[in-house]
């Protein structure tokens, strides 16, 4: 009878230990690791969405402002550079690869801002329905990129905190050896300000002030 009880006791003990370890946060690190990777994937998705919009946007602008060759070339080259940076889930723990990717995307954000300013000089472009639709999609995508970067940073900070605080630091060093902190996006000037387009007519310059009349003698 005692021999039959031993397996049952071992099974019960295993359950108790598993529950106890769970309560001590042994599952916290892999759970937060997966959340961080999911947030990173969303960042990539939004950047890819923006990249897919650019060829049509450049072609539309070129049809009305072909003389803006320098800006159009800069956008095309920046997109190509950003596309050439290969990333995957491991990129978030590789400082050099992460910064290379972030820098390429921030550069593209900057030159897109220059492209958007061009429309002010070309009334026909400003009223083109295809351009208006692309501009609206780009603006929405830039907003989603900002949100995705923010959400990723927040998730990554929680994960990084788990790697260096008790009790999860114990599991990080023993059970999950080799876990590295996730890199964070830094708020560059280009990233903080998404490219925007104003379709309002530029304000007329203020009339110069008239000199005060000379006092009567």
TrEMBL record:
InterPro entries: LemA-like_dom_sf, MamQ_LemA. GO terms for cellular component: membrane. PROSITE patterns: PROKAR_LIPOPROTEIN. It is found in: Membrane. Its main location: membrane. Keywords: Membrane, Transmembrane, Transmembrane helix. It is a single-pass membrane protein. Belongs to the LemA family. This is LemA family protein. It comes from Caulobacter radicis.
């Amino acid at each position: 009878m005692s021999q039959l009880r031993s397996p049952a006791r071992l099974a019960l003990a295993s359950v108790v230990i598993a529950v106890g370890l769970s309560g001590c946060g042994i599952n916290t690190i892999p759970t937060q690791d997966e959340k961080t990777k999911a947030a990173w994937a969303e960042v990539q998705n939004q950047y890819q969405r923006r990249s897919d919009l650019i060829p049509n946007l450049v072609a539309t602008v070129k049809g009305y402002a072909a003389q803006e060759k320098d800006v159009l070339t800069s956008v095309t080259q920046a997109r190509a550079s950003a596309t050439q940076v290969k990333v995957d889930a491991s990129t978030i723990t590789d400082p050099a690869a992460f910064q290379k990717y972030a820098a390429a995307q921030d550069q593209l954000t900057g030159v897109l801002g220059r492209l958007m300013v061009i429309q002010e000089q070309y009334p026909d472009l400003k009223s083109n329905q295809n351009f208006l639709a692309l501009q609206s999609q780009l603006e929405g995508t830039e907003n989603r990129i900002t949100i995705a970067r923010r959400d990723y940073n927040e998730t990554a900070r929680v994960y990084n905190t788990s790697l260096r605080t008790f009790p999860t630091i114990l599991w990080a060093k023993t059970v999950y050896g080799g876990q590295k902190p996730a890199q964070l996006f830094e708020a560059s000037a280009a990233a903080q300000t998404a490219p925007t387009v104003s379709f309002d007519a530029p304000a007329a310059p203020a009339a110069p002030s008239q000199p005060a009349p000379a006092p009567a003698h």
